[in-house]
Amino acid sequence: MSTGTEPETEPEAELTEPGSETDEAALESLLGERAIARDDHLNAPGFVINPNDVQSVLSDLRDEAGYDHLSCVTAQQYEDRYESIYHMKKFADPTDEVSIVVPTTVDNPVSQSAEPVFRTADWHEREAYDLVGVEYEDHPDLRRILLPETWQGHPLSKDYDQEKPQLVTLTEHQNPIQPDHRDAESDTMFLNIGPHHPATHGVLHVKTVLDGETVADVEPDIGYLHRCEEQMCEQGTYRHQIMPYPDRWDYVSAGLLNEWAYARAIEDLADIEVPEYAQIIRTMGSELCRIASHMLALGTFALDVYGEFTATFMYTFRDREVIQDILEDLTGQRMMFNYFRVGGVAWDLPEPREEFFEQTREFLNELPTKVGEYNDLITGNEIFQTRCIDTGVLETEVAKDYGCTGPVARGSGVDYDLRRDDPYGYYEQLDWDVITRDGCDNYARVLCRMEEVEESAKIIEQCLDLLEDWPEDERDVQANVPRTLKPDAGTEIYRAVEGAKGELGIYIRSDGSDKPGRFKIRSPCFSNLQALEEMSEGEYIPDLIASLGSLDIVLGEVDR
Amino acid sequence: MSGATASPFPLQNGGDPVLLPEHITELTGLGQFGLAGELLATFVAAFIVGNLILAMTGVAGPWAKRKITASFTDRIAVNHLGPGGIGIIIADSVRLLAKENIIPENVDRPAYDLAPIVIAGSAMLGFAVIPMGSGIHLADPEVGLAFVFAVAGIASIGLVMAGYASGNKYSLLGGLRAVAQNVAYEIPLVVTGMSVVLFAGSLQMSEIVAVQNETTLFTIPGLEWAVPAWFALVNPFAFVLFLIANFAEVGRNPFDMPEAPAELIAGYQTEYSSVYFVLVYLGEFLHIFLGGAIIATIFLGGPAGPGPDELGIFWFILKIWGVFFLTQWLRSAVPRVRIDQLIEIGWKGLLVLSFANLGLTAAIVGVIA
C-alpha cells in the first residue's frame, strides 16, 4: 500500500500486500457456492454474488470472518448490468478488506438490501438508488436521498439525459416547511429544524417530532448542498482536473486531508511512487488542516452549548487563523488549497524556509497554552460537564453498525485510525498516539478532538525537524508522472485516508481513458450523520443540538 | 408617605421635597395650579426618569454590549463611527427604525402587537419606585419592593403572548420555557427578597436603603473607613441566591433558555422585526437594568457611595452597570443549562435554599430583636 514510505526497498511487494493479507482461501470456503465469480480490486479480493445472497453473505462475513465495517457501497452501471459493490473492512485491521460485487440486470436492477445486516447500508443504498437507479429489496425506506422526490431519472445511469434541465420548484417538490401539522390528534409536535437554522452547521433539514421538550423522532433530510461532485470528478482528467474538487467536500478547513484521499487512490491505481520529502510535507500540511478543522469543531460545538456570544468560539477562530496563515504561506490559499499533485505536492516550502519553520514552531509552542485555556473554559466547567456527559450516547457496537469513523467512533471507544491502521504518507515513521475515549457521549467526542489536536502538533513538530534537516539536493516534491494518466481499463480501487471527520474513501474504476469510469466518494460525515437518530431519540432538544454539533458534520461533504 | 428620620441622603422629612415630582413642583412653581400642576410635574418627572433609563439601554444595547463582548472574545467591535465607535448608537437606531416591520400571516393580533409593549413596559414601571439618588425618585409607596416584583413579573405574560401569538413553533417553545423558568425562579427571588425585608422591617424602598446605610457593619482599622451594613455584606448568602435567581429571571446565561439562539432560533422573539424587535430587545435590557437596580437597592445600599449625596445617581448607575457587566461576562464564559436541569436547579435547589435563608434570617433577626 502506502507507496513511497519505503520506496527503494519493496514497492512491488507493498502493492500486492492487501491481497496477500486477506485469507482468500478461508473466504472462498466461507462463501462456498454463493461466490459465483471473482472480481478482484486493487485493494481487496472481490467476490461476485447473486443479488439474493447479499444478506446471508454479508452477515456471514461479519459474524464468521470478522468483517465488521461496511465502509462504503458503490453502485454503477455498465452497458450490460448494474453493479453494487460492498466495500468491507475490519475495524481491528482495515488493511484486511474484501469487496462483495452484486451485479443485477439492466431490465430488472433489483438487489437484496444489506440494511438488515448493517444499519449504515440504509443511506448508502438510498444514495445508490437515487443516483444510479439500483433498487434494493427489503430496504425499509427506499427513497431518494440527495435529489428531490420529484426528480426524473437517475443521473449516473447510462440512459439519463444530462442535457435536459430539470427545475424543481417548491410547489412541485414537497415544500420542506409544508407538513407542519401531521396528526391533529396526537400529543406530539412536528418541528422542522432547518434547512435554515442556526444549529444545523449548513443547510441540513432535521425533521423532528417532539413530545414536549423530548425528542421522539429524528430524521435528517440531506441533499440541499448536492453539487454532483462525483460526476464532476468523472468528467475531469486524472492528472490535474480532479485535484481541485476535494477541497470543496469538507470545505471548512480540511482541504489537504481531502486532497490526500484522491491522491492516495490515484497513486495506488496508477502505481506512482511519491518522494519521501513530499510525503513529509503532505503529512505536515494535513495535520495542520486537522488542527484547523478540530478547532472549528470545538468552536461551533461551544456555540451550540453556550449560545452565540461565547468566548470559546472566538478563541478557537483566533487560533485557527494562525494555522490558516501558515497554510496560506505553504499553499498560496487559505481554504481551497489545490496544493497536492498526483505524485507529490505543487511546490516546496516557501522561501525563506527559516521563516516558515519559525512561524510554525511558534504556533506549536503556543498551542499547549491555548489548549490549557480551552480546558479552563470548557472541560473545567461544571455546567458544561452536566450538559455533555451522558448525553448523545453512541454505544460502541452501534457506532460500528452505522459505519461511524473518526473522532465520533474514537469517542465511542472504537480504536480505529487509518493513519496508524492502514498507514500512508509518513505517519508510520513518526511517534504519535491514537486517541480513544470510551465515554460514548458528547463529552468524549469533544475531549477526543482536543487531544487529537495535541497529537497532530506532535506529528507536525517531527515533520518540521525532518524537513529542516533534509539535504538540499534531495528535496523532490514531485514524482515523475506521465502527462496523461491512463490506468488499465477495468482496474478498480477503493482507498481511504483518515480525514478530519473520519474515513474518507475514494473508489475509482478506470475505463482505460484519462478520466475515471466511476468516481465514488465515501464521506465520513455521511455515515456519521446517520447515527444522529440513535443518539438523540428520547433526549431533550438541547441535547439533540449538542449531539449534532458533536458529530461535526460539514454539509459539503455529506451532500457532495 | 412616612420616611425615616436620619439618613445620609434626603428622604421625606418634614416639609422638604424628596421625590422628583415634588422637586419639580417646587422649582417650576407648578404647585399653584393645584392637582393639574402636580400631575404635570409628575409627568415631567416620569419623562426624565424614563429617558434616563432609555438612554442607558441605548448606550448598552448597540454599543456597550458589543464592546464588552468583544473584549471578552479578543475582538475590537465597532470603532468607525465616533470615538470608540459610540456613533453606532445613532446608526443602529436609524437602521432598526428604518427596517420594514414584517408581520407574518397567521399571527394572533392584537396579542402579537401588545407583547413587545408589555415586555418593555413592565420593566419601565419598576423603575418608578427605585430611589436612584440625587433626588431622582419617582414614587415611594410603602409596598415598594412588592410593587417592583409584581410589575417585573408582568413580563412573563408578555413573553407568553409573544410566544403564543407569533404562530411559530419555536416561539411557542420559547414562550413555554419562559413561563416555566419564570415560575420556577420568581418564588426564590421573592422569598430571598423577603429576607431583606426582615432585616429592614419595611417594604418601602427608601427605608430599605436607609437602613443599610444607617448602621456601620465594622470600621476598617487604621483607615477609619466605616463599612456600611449593606445587605450584600450582612447576608452574602442571600445576595448570591438573589443574583442567581435574577439571572434566571432576566433570562441570561447560564439560564438563557427562552431564547437559546442555537436551539430555538430566537425563542419567543423569532417572528419580531423592526420596531417590534427593538421593543422586545429593549425590554430585555430594561429587565437586566431593573434587576441591577433591585440588586443595587436592596443589597448594595442603593445610591450610597463616597462623596456628597449629589453623586448618588453616579454610584447607582455604576452599580447597575456592574450587574450588567456581570451578565455579559457570564454570557461569554458560561454554557447554558438544559431546560430540565434549569427547572431542577430552580425547584430543588434555589427554592429550598431561599426558604432556608428566610428561616435562618427570621431566627437571627428575632434573636437580635
TrEMBL record, chain A:
Subunit structure: NDH-1 is composed of 13 different subunits. Subunits NuoB, CD, E, F, and G constitute the peripheral sector of the complex.
Protein name: NADH-ubiquinone oxidoreductase chain 49kDa
Chain intervals with Acidic residues compositional bias: 7-23
NADH-quinone oxidoreductase subunit D domain span: 310-560
SUPFAM superfamilies the record matches: HydB/Nqo4-like, Nqo5-like
Organism, as annotated: Natrialba chahannaoensis JCM 10990
Gene3D superfamilies: Cytochrome-c3 Hydrogenase, chain B (1.10.645.10), NADH:ubiquinone oxidoreductase, 30kDa subunit (3.30.460.80)
Domain NADH:ubiquinone oxidoreductase 30kDa subunit: 48-165
GO molecular function: NAD binding; NADH dehydrogenase (ubiquinone) activity; oxidoreductase activity, acting on NAD(P)H; quinone binding
Annotated localization: Cell membrane
Protein's membrane topology: Peripheral membrane protein
Lineage start: Archaea, Methanobacteriati, Methanobacteriota, Stenosarchaea group, Halobacteria
Keyword Glycosyltransferase in annotation: no
Similarity annotation: In the C-terminal section; belongs to the complex I 49 kDa subunit family.
Keyword Cell cycle applies: no
Predominant location category: membrane
A cellular-component GO term for this protein: plasma membrane
Swiss-Prot/TrEMBL keywords: Cell membrane, Membrane, Multifunctional enzyme, NAD, Transport, Ubiquinone
Reactions the enzyme catalyzes: a quinone + NADH + 5 H(+)(in) = a quinol + NAD(+) + 4 H(+)(out)
Region entry Disordered, spans: 1-23
From TrEMBL, chain B:
GO CC terms, sorted: membrane
Keyword Protease: no
Record organism: Natrialba chahannaoensis JCM 10990
Bilayer-crossing regions: 39-60, 114-137, 143-162, 183-205, 225-248, 275-300, 312-330, 350-368
Protein name, entry field: NADH dehydrogenase (Quinone)
Keyword tags: Membrane, Transmembrane, Transmembrane helix
Membrane topology (UniProt): Multi-pass membrane protein
GO molecular function: NADH dehydrogenase activity
Gene Ontology biological-process annotations: aerobic respiration
Subcellular location: Membrane
Keyword Thylakoid: no
Stretch forming the signal peptide: none
